[in-house]
Each structure stands twice: as structure tokens, then as C-alpha cells.
Amino acid sequence: MKPTRALHDLGQSLWLDNITRNLLRTGGLRHYIDELSVTGLTSNPTIFDHAIKNRNDYDDAIRSKLAQGKSGEKLFFELALEDLTEAADLFRPIYDRTGGVDGWVSLEVSPLLAHETKSTVAEAKDLHARAQRPNLLIKIPGTKEGLPAIEEAVFAGIPINVTLLFSAEQYVAAADAYMRGVERRIEAGLKAGVCSVASIFISRWDVAVAGKVPEALNNQLGIAVSKRAYKAYLGLLGSPRWMRAYNAGARPQRLLWASTGTKDPKSSDVLYVQALAAPFTVNTIPEATLKAFADHGALGATMPIDGGDSDEILARFAAAGIDVQALADQLQDEGAKTFVKSWNDLMSVIMSKSSVLKRAS
Questions:
Q1: What is the pTM assigned to this prediction?
Q2: Which residues of 182-201 are buried (b: 16+ CB within 10 A; e: fewer)?
Q3: Phi, psi (5° rounding) for residue 139?
Q4: For residues 25 and 82, what is the distance between their CA atoms, to the nearest angstrom?
Q5: In sequence order, what DSSP letters do the residues of 31-49 get, joined into one string?
Q6: Mean pLDDT along residues 221-247
Q7: Alpha carbon separation from 93 to 79, 253, 328 (Å, rounded)
Q8: Model pLDDT for residues 340-351, shown as the tens digit of each residue
Q9: Known catalytic residue: 263?
Q10: Angle between helix 3-10 and 287-296 (nearest 10)
């Protein structure tokens, strides 16, 4: 049995952290679904930036949209929706078979809106309506301003992927926003079953403290934080508040591990995949990491439900001078700024490619 199938059978979903038109057209995504147990995917501006900049797969579509007078963000979202609706159709049998638990694809709202609640909600509604696919999640960052947008979007019935979470505390705040939206739907007599995932970023923790802690602590912070978050996740799922919502037809918001590619070349290239194995979670896995795990990954113990040694490990980081909560806030702020930079880079690539294609026509 392939390691990816073993992970799937454990109860964890593998979602590809990539999408390109070439991956769709050549059957690459279909191969990952059939052979490597991939059951969903996520996208972000950086992925589209690289795909549009480095290949000519989008040139014909860009020419067509330019002829229709479209440009910038409007042109990009049409390209992204074309790719993601095609991917959503590939995953639709999984979505149907699992009753909407799995088989999702994700599209991010403009990162420029990360601190604008009303605009974020409006764009989330618009993108979901334009996609016309039930298995499309809209990504909204779990920033201070994003939390009320998450609540409003869930209340409006929009499936949400809460992104840019870094700690158990940030996860709990995002889960609370999701639950408020669900509870308002229940009070209003609406269907409570709005799906959502909450994405905690892992590898950026270890990058942030590299060279600042004793060598024995290298590549341990992200995993310790994830164990603590998993304990909080299971605690929330078993709480009376969540049980009451489930009794009214709500769906559990699944915990998702993001940024799970190993950044340290001295460490295992499947470090995080093996450490984050846990039932009823999702791992958004980079393409290279997916192939590596399929080739030489192995499952060991699943993530402990009680947090395992996370408190001990986090105490050692505190003793080494790392303020974990302050670092979580810093990473979220930096992440939002990085998303904005990636978005601006993407808009520049689209503008540049549009100019080239116009001159060539």
C-alpha cells in the first residue's frame, strides 16, 4: 500500500497545494487523485503567479479576455475560476461520496482586503456565486478584521477556508467566528451545515527561529504548536456548544495543516507529513512533498490527542527566549503582508504578459 493511501485510510485528507492549467490539461491532477489519494486542493496568488509567469498555458485565455476589455483583478479571477471549477468537477465524485466532507478546492479573496471586513464578505459572496460549484471554499484570513468577515460569510452560507492561522489561540478565535455564523443561521431557521476548514501554518515557525535556539530544538516548534492546536481542536469538537450545533445539523469545521513542506535541507523532506498524521484533519501538501511521501514516507504514531509533549517543548523554547504568542502574532502579520506582496507580483505579471500579448497580436 502506498504511504499516501495509508494516510488516507488513517482518516486524514491530502489536498494538493498547487494548481496549474498544465496540471489539469495533462492529466496530472487526475493521476494524483487516482494514484496518490489526493482528495482536494488549495490555491493562492503565488501559485498562480508562477504558473502564469513561467508558462504559456494561459496566453490564449488572456488574449481572449483582453479582447473583451478585461484586465487586472477581473481578468485574474476569471482565469482562476476557470481552473478551479474544472478541478472542482474532478473532485466532485469525492465530495458527493463523502457527503461534502471532502473533495474541496479553495480560492482566496484579494489579500488587499485582509483588513476590510465588508469588502471581504462582498468578494467572498461574489466569487462563490460565480463559481457555481458546491465544493469551492473561499479563503479568508483569520486576522482581527477577517474574523467578523468569516462570521458574516458563514451566516450567508459561504463555505470558508480560514487561512493564516499560526497558534491554538488564533485557531480558537477562528473557530468561534465560524460557530457564531452557524449559530446565527440556526436562530434564523436556516440550514446549519456550512462547511469550513481552519488552516494552521506549520513550517514558518521553524524558519522564524532558525539559528535563534539550541540546535536540539531545530524543527520542533511547528510540530509542538500543531500538537497544542490539535488538542484544542478535539476539545472544541467535544464541547457542549459544538454538540448543540451538530444536533441542529451543523458540520464540524476541520483542522487543516498548511505550509507542510520542509524548509530545512538538513531535515527529512517528509518531516511534517509524518508528524502531523491525525484523523479528521487535512494536510495541504506541496507537490514535491506529495511525491516524496509517496516514494519513501512512512506512518508512525498518530498525533496525540492530549497534546503529547507540546507543553514541555514550548517551555524549552520559552527558556531559550522565544515568546511563542508574540511570534504567532508576528507571523500572522508578516503572512498577511507576504500575501499582499504575492498578489501585487501576480497583478504585475498579468499586466506584463497582457502588454506582451497585445503587442504580438
A1: 0.95
A2: bbbbbeeeeebbbbbbbbbb
A3: -85, 125
A4: 12
A5: HHHHHH-EEEE---HHHHH
A6: 97
A7: 23, 21, 37
A8: 999 999 999 899
A9: no
A10: 100
